[in-house]
Amino acid sequence: MTELQLHKLLKGVQKPGRYTGGELNSVVKNKDEVDVRFAFCFPDTYEIGMSHLGMKILYALLNDMDGVWCERVFAPWVDMEQNLRREGMGVYALESLDDIAQFDIIGFTLQYELCYTNMLHMLDLSGIPLYSKDRHSLHNLVVAGGPCTCNAEPFADFVDVAFLGEGEEQMVQFVQLYKEYKANGADKQSFLKAAAQIRGVYVPSLYTVSYHPDGTVEAVTAESGAPLPIQKYIIQDLDTAFYPKDFVVPYIEVVHDRAVEEVFRGCIRGCRFCQAGMIYRPVREKSWETVSKQAKCLCDATGYEEISLSSLSTSDYSQLEPLLNDMLEWTQKDQVNISLPSLRIDTFSPELLEKISRVRKSGLTFAPEAGSQRMRDVINKNLDEDVILQSCETAFRGGHCNVKLYFMLGLPTETLEDIEAIGQLGQKIVDRFYAMPDKPKGRGVQVSISLATFVPKPHTPFQWMAQDKLQTIRDKQRHLVESLTTRKISVSWHESQTSVLEAVFARGDRRLSKVLYRAHELGCKFDSWHECFDMHKWKQAFADCGLSIEFYANRERSYEEVLPWDHLDYGITKGFLKRENERAKAAQTTKNCREQCAGCGANRLLRGGTCFENC
Ligand code: SF4
Fold first, then answer.
1. Which residue, judged by its Cα, is nearest atom 2 of ligand 1?
2. Measured between alpha carbons, how far is 478 from 255 in angstroms, rounded to an integer?
3. pLDDT score recorded for residue 224
4. Residue 264's beta-bridge partner residues?
5. Domain ranges in the chain?
6. Residue 560 alpha carbon to ligand 1 centre in Å
7. What whole-number distance in Å separates Cα of residue 354 and Cα of residue 347?
8. In the structure, what pLDDT confidence band is assigned to residue 361 with cuts at 50, 70 and 90?
9. Which of 88, 308, 526, 594 is positioned for an S-S bond with 532, CB 3.0–4.6 A?
10. Top mutation candidate among 268, 579, 603 for ligand 1, by most atoms within 8 Å of CB
11. In CATH, which of 2.40.50.140, 3.40.50.300, 3.30.1330.30, 3.40.50.280 is domain 3-231?
12. Hey, what CATH topology would domain 258-349+575-615 get?
C-alpha cells in the first residue's frame, strides 16, 4: 500500500493512529532479504493488542531470528473495515502496510473465546480461505497460540497449527522448520506432519474426533504418527529465556501504556476456577537481579515512566523485598513509577504498602471472589474475612479510601446466603473504615463491587461443572443489589450473555467450528464489545447448525465423559483435578504449593518431583 492509499483509507476513521504504524522500536526489514514473513495478528483493537505482553515477547523474538520478519496486525474497527471494503483492500500489517495475504505465516494470539469470530473476520477481509482444508499450499499457513489453545477444538477446523504452552522456544523451532521446508519447496502436508513432532505443536487435521449419539465425544485418534496426547511446551529457566530489550511505543493511548516486566510464571495458589493458575504451572521465578536488569533496560529503551511487575500474583514473588529495594534505587533516580498489579490481599503487609506508597498511590483492588467463607473454601481462595478486613484497614491507614472488590456469581454450590454475604462483606469494610480512630479526615469510604459470571474452564477442577442459566444469574445479580443497605457500596457487572458464549466456546468440541463459521456469515465480530455483540445472531447460528447452547454451557459432565480437550496435556493430571473437584464439593481447602505439594502433575514436564524443596 502506498502512503497516498493509506491517507485515503484513513479518511473519516476514528483513531487513525491505530492504523499507521511507524512507532518507536517497530521493526522494519527489507522484505527482499527475508525468507519468512510472519503476520502476528491480535484479533481485537490496536489499544488492547498493544497492551499484550505475549505479543511483545514473540514480536521481538521472531525479529531477532535471521531471515524472519514479524509484523503486527490488529483487527480493523467497524469504520475502518468499511473503508477497506470500499477500497477493495484487505487487513494489512503495520510495518510494511502489506496485506496479510502476502505473508507466509499468519499467527493469531487467542486470549479470549469471544475473539474467535474476529480471527475469521480478519482472514475473510484479506480473501484467505477460512477452513484449513481449503488452503492447500505452505503459503498463508494459519497458526494460533495463547491460553485459548488449551481447548483448540472449537476453532480446530480453521487453523493449521495450534501452539500449546509457552511460545518462546517452540516458535523458534517451528519457524526454523518452516524456513527449511519452504526453501525446499515442500508441500503443506509434509510440513505439518514434521511440525507435529515439535513439543507443543498441535496439528488438528492429524486427529479425528468421533462422537456418541448424544453428542458427547467418543474418542480422539491420531494419524500419521502424530503424538497423542500432545504435551504443552514449557520454558525451563526464565532467567535465560528470551525477553525483549525494548517495546514498540504507541502514538495513541492504549489500555496499558507502560513497560512490563514479567517476574514469574505459574501460580502457587490453586484457585479452583482459575484456568491461568492451572495451565501455567508450575511456578518458575526469575531472579530479582534479572528482573531489575531487564526492567531498567526496557525503561531506558522506551522512555516509559512506569514499569509494571507482572505475574498472576506478584505479591507471591519470593524475592519481592530485595527486588523492590534494588529497583527503588534506580526508579527514583529515573523518575519511574513501579506498579504492582495482581496483589493478593493476604500478602498485603504494611511494609509492602509503604513501598508501594513511595512509588504510586491509587485506588486499591482486591479479588476475594466470594463473599462467604464457605464459598471461598469451595473455590480454594484460602482467604479469611479477618485478613480481608485487616488488609483494607492497612490500606485505609495508608491513605486509601476507595476499595474495589471483585467477585464471581454462579460459582458451584452457591446459595442465596453466599450472595448476600458479598454485600455483608462490603458493609463490614465500610464499618471498619468508620471505626478507625485515625481515619483520613474529611474523606468518606467507597466500596465498589464488581461482579463477573462464573465460567467453567477446561483444565480446572471445575471443568465438569454446569454454568448457571442466564435467568438464574440475573436473579442473583438483582438479589445482591436488593440486599444492600448503604450507598457507600456500589455494584456493577458485565453483560452475562457474553459469559454464556464464553462458557460454550471454552468447553466446546470441534463441531462448534461450523457455528463459528455461520456466526461469521451472519456478521458476528467484536463479540466482546457490547456495541457489536448480538445474541440473536448467535442463537440463529446455533439453530442453523442444529447445536444447543445449553448442551455446552449448562450441562454437568460426568468424570467418565471424554472431554473435548482430554488429548491436550497441560501437565496437571485428571486425577488431581478430580480430587480438587471433590474437595470443592466438600468445601475443603488445599494448601498452596509452597506449603504443601498437592501432586498436580505439572512438574513432570519440568524436572519431576515436587516444585519446592520443603514439600
Ligand atoms: S507439582 Fe506440587 S508444588 Fe508443583 S505446581 Fe503442582 S501442586 Fe504445586
1. 597
2. 30
3. 84
4. 285
5. 3-231, 258-349+575-615, 363-494
6. 25
7. 13
8. very low
9. 526
10. 603
11. 3.40.50.280
12. Transcription Regulator spoIIAA (3.30.750)
